């Protein structure tokens, strides 16, 4: 599947050993069960229940005694009802420019691209050129990035008829050669 | 992958809630100052800026992402209410008509004749809405996210 000299790590532990020192943190942001709010930012971070629908942030255990403080049992870990994974983009971009090879590829659309009247890259498109005309300052710096936001849902574990749906959101960089 | 939204139900219109951290970071990248980044190839610091170029999604997700409806009578996300659509009673579906207005001005099909109820179509192509028009439409809207009561409808001007 992969081209030569590109190898997938065999275990998750090996993969973590490569990725973790890079400082690419993934935030786990708790969300309301009914999608009302995220428990994120100064205003919402310390809330226990949603402001809109009053749903609890954490799952209620079956043997939960409610508000009664039980001294014998130590406080157990709370399980959030819904979690959103979020990888901040700015650290990713900083790492992208740290690599000499990748940093050169981000210049590619201005210098090495073959320019004739053929359409073969997003940079040949009318929308790209319209942005160049409108935001001159932005267009002067070829390293400035243009993102595409792609959204779709998928079923986990090849469950074709599953009603459980998970939504990944990805950002692709259009500066890179195709 | 930058955001992963957990199930069990799909977020629908509430996807805006989940995109909020991403939008804040994109706005920060679009601001005039940008982000200070070291470029290894050119061996220099520079201010990186970025913009959102396109969005890639399927047709049902477009309605959630853009916040517009893309079904029923006003299905077009570009021309809004300029669209001609009728409901066919026997077929039980909405169809979209009035494609003749996209033809060149002196095209023979635009003339009146046997078809199109014997009428001529002299309208020009609808214009794209400007930002001010769209802002005027959505200004009074009170959006409530979540799977609860939902947002209130904006009363239509009569």
Give the H and E element order of chain B: EHEEEHEEH
Helix content of chain A: 25-40%
Class by alpha and beta content of chain A: alpha+beta
Order of adjacent strands in the largest pleated sheet of chain B = 2-3
Specify the overall morphology of chain B.
Answer: extended
| Percent of residues in beta strands of chain B | 15-25%
Can you characterise this structure?
Chain A has 178 residues and is α+β, with helices and mostly antiparallel strands. Helix content of chain A is 26%, strand content 13%. Chain A contains 7 helices and 4 strands, in the order H-E-H-E-H-H-H-H-H-E-E. Chain A has a two-stranded antiparallel sheet. In chain A, strands 3-4 form a two-stranded antiparallel sheet. The longest helix of chain A is centred in the middle third of the chain and has 10 residues, at 89-98. Chain A is elongated. The two termini of chain A are 18 Å apart. With 158 residues, chain B is α+β, with helices and mostly antiparallel strands. Helices cover 20% and strands 20% of the residues of chain B. Chain B has 3 helices and 6 strands; from the N terminus they run E-H-E-E-E-H-E-E-H. Chain B has a two-stranded antiparallel ribbon. In chain B, a hairpin with a 4-residue loop joins strand 2 and strand 3 (44-48). Chain B is extended. Chain B starts with a strand and ends in a 20-residue tail after the last helix. The mean pLDDT of chain B is 83. At the A-B interface, strand 1, strand 2, helix 3, helix 4 and helix 6 of A face strand 1, helix 1, strand 2, strand 3 and strand 4 of B. Strand 4 of chain A pairs antiparallel with strand 1 of chain B, so a sheet runs across the interface.
